[in-house]
TrEMBL record:
This is Radical SAM domain protein. Residues 182-411 form the Radical SAM core domain. GO terms for molecular function: 4 iron, 4 sulfur cluster binding; catalytic activity; cobalamin binding; metal ion binding. GO terms for cellular component: cytosol. Keywords: Iron, Iron-sulfur, Metal-binding, Methyltransferase, S-adenosyl-L-methionine, Transferase. Its cofactor is [4Fe-4S] cluster. PANTHER family: ANAEROBIC MAGNESIUM-PROTOPORPHYRIN IX MONOMETHYL ESTER CYCLASE-RELATED, BLL1977 PROTEIN. It holds the Pfam family Radical_SAM. The lineage of its organism: Bacteria, Pseudomonadati, Chlorobiota, Chlorobiia, Chlorobiales. CDD domains: Radical_SAM (cd01335). It comes from the Bacteria. Residues 15-158 form the B12-binding domain.
Length: 477
């Protein structure tokens, strides 16, 4: 049988967590600074964000006779264009569309057949049509097999759409054979559920994955964890948006994982702090840290963005309970939501101090095309770029403001944000948080020090943007 070769490509964003603009452009003419920036860029890529794309791991685990699949992660690897590929798949992320389309154009010009899939294709297929030979819309866990079979039969079609959300209880196990394991900080990435019952308007998970929570079978997850452990003993990342979304399921699963003695991190709601049994199961199964989305400390702001599920009055106690169980808390805020005023700045700082949050993340709202908040801000004339220019809404990591906050003029908002991050991310605070962390002290120190650096760069970028927007800054760096 003729062997078909498929290459699956993951593209780094030209901004965002892959490094702020200062590290992307080799702007420095000073040799020492260039060297330092080069080293930092490499550390950022390798140390913090170097987990593999689960999407492409799932696709490459689908076996069809006569098809060999390989993953190319452009964060570390160069495109192997010296080989003959029968099909090249690109994962297109909203926020990194431009580099994806540029790559597709280059490959098609060289005569390769390109298939586009991923979040942006799912939400904006009509904008992708001319950029790929084949489009795959939706979660491709099941439909990718059809594409591969059609490749073998020579009957590929221009469009494939997942008519329903895949039933995760019947999907197979995830394999790592298409990956170069040595590239990553860890390759142990697992998702137990998909979909989200909530509707926060700044998020597109419920748009892409629906409102119904779908579960993998507990036995399948345990099987994947056991197999992953044989190849890689490092930490596990549970990539679920809310790993405690179904408390009964989560408790059963993590109790079954206790004997495997893994260590893991994930994302949860603070509601976890109200369930001592689940908290105990998480801690005993090796949970070291959880990211919790706090967003605003003004209930009115969270409500304005359709986030209703964790009222402020319970947050501090829940965070305390999670930390008392020996689990570090990464608290993620969004400053500048619709009912936030300048007072929020002090409220966030006090809250972080009083709750002892181990790693704070102070984000700017990033309107993602395809979300409710994007359309609303566009209708209200508050976006800083043309709503149709999706490239302008690229991934950014606290480096760039893309909209006008409702209650705070931009010329006051940017300095108040930079002032907040300047006070929260200092070397002294980093050491204090590490010493107080319930576990993973050196990781907490590293993360906080890394943020001291990153938020320092973000301040420079933001104030640069402010100058470009022709607004006056009174902020100190
Ligand atoms: C883990 C994660 C991260 C990790 C690791 C990312 C990685 N290297 O894989 C880290 C922490 C680094 C991260 C960072 C960021 N993230 Co993130 N992240 C996630 C998270 C929680 C899980 C991703 C995942 O693995 N999903 C599971 C897989 C199976 O789903 P999937 O990727 O959608 O893939 C399926 C389909 O889309 C399709 N598909 C995907 N690719 C392809 C390719 C082909 C060829 C085909 C046919 C099909 C196909 O088939 C897959 C299987 O069904 C998602 C939320 C989510 N639920 O997806 C957010 C999410 C992807 N992140 C998001 C954002 C905004 C960010 C940041 C910009 C945050 C920031 N401000 O810095 C950065 C940007 C990073 C970057 N430079 O790309 C948004 C993206 C919005 C979008 N793309 O439209 C999401 C959706 C969260 C959200 N609230 O909206 N993230
Ligand atoms: S932010 Fe979290 S809780 Fe809100 S809709 Fe997105 S995934 Fe669900």
């Amino acid at each position: 049988m003729v062997q078909r070769s498929v290459l699956l490509v993951f593209i780094p964003a030209d901004s965002g967590t892959d490094g702020p603009a200062h590290l992307q452009k080799d702007v420095s003419s000073n040799g020492f600074k260039r060297l330092k920036d080069g080293m930092l860029k490499s550390v950022i890529k390798r140390a913090q964000f170097a987990i593999p794309p689960l999407s492409l791991m799932i696709l490459s685990s689908i076996e069809v006779d006569g098809v060999q699949q390989t993953i190319c992660d452009l964060r570390f690897e160069t495109l192997p264009l010296d080989k003959q590929w029968d099909l090249i798949g690109i994962s297109v992320q909203t926020g990194a569309v431009k580099p994806a389309f540029e790559l597709a154009a280059m490959l098609r010009q060289k005569g390769f057949r390109v298939v586009l899939g991923g979040p942006y294709v799912t939400v904006f297929p009509e904008r992708c049509r001319e950029h790929g030979d084949i489009l795959v819309r939706g979660e491709a866990d099941e439909i990718w097999k059809d594409v591969l079979c059609d490749l073998v039969d020579g009957s590929l079609k221009p469009d494939y759409t997942a008519a329903v959300f895949p039933d995760l209880s019947s999907t197979g196990s995830v394999k790592k054979s298409a990956l170069d394991i040595s590239n990553y900080f860890t390759t142990n990435v697992v998702q137990t559920t998909r979909g989200c019952p909530y509707s926060c308007d700044f998020c597109n998970v419920h748009v892409m994955n629906g409102h119904k929570l779908r579960h993998r079978r507990i036995g399948d997850v345990v099987h994947d964890v056991e197999h992953f452990l044989k190849e890689d003993k490092r930490i596990f990342f549970f990539l679920d948006d809310t790993v405690n979304a179904d408390e009964a399921y989560a408790e059963k699963l993590f109790r079954e994982l206790i004997p495997l003695k893994i260590s893991w991190v994930g994302q949860a709601t603070t509601k976890l702090g109200e369930n001592p049994q689940l908290l105990e199961a998480f801690a005993r199964s090796g949970c070291g840290a959880l990211l919790v989305g706090i967003e605003s400390l003004a209930d009115a702001s969270n409500r304005a963005h359709h986030k209703f599920h964790n009222p402020i009055e319970r947050q501090a106690e829940c965070i305390g309970n999670i930390r008392s169980a020996g689990i570090c808390v990464y608290g993620s805020f969004i400053y500048g939501l619709d009912e936030d005023t300048l007072l929020e700045q002090q409220t966030i700082e006090t809250f972080i101090h009083e709750t002892g949050i181990d790693v704070p993340g102070i984000n700017l709202l990033r309107p993602i095309p395809g979300t409710g908040v994007f359309d609303r801000l566009a209708d209200e004339g508050r976006l800083l770029h043309d709503r149709h220019d999706h490239d302008a809404f690229r991934f950014s990591w606290a480096q760039e403001i893309l909209y006008r906050p409702k209650r705070i003029p931009l010329e006051e908002f940017i300095p108040s944000y930079t002032e907040l991050t300047r006070r929260i991310f200092t070397p002294a605070q980093a050491i204090r948080r590490a010493l107080a962390a319930p576990t993973l002290k050196s990781a907490v120190l590293m993360f906080n020090l890394f943020y001291v650096h990153m938020y320092g760069l973000s301040r420079k970028d933001l104030l640069g943007q402010m100058a470009a927007l022709d607004v006056e800054s009174s902020s100190t760096l």
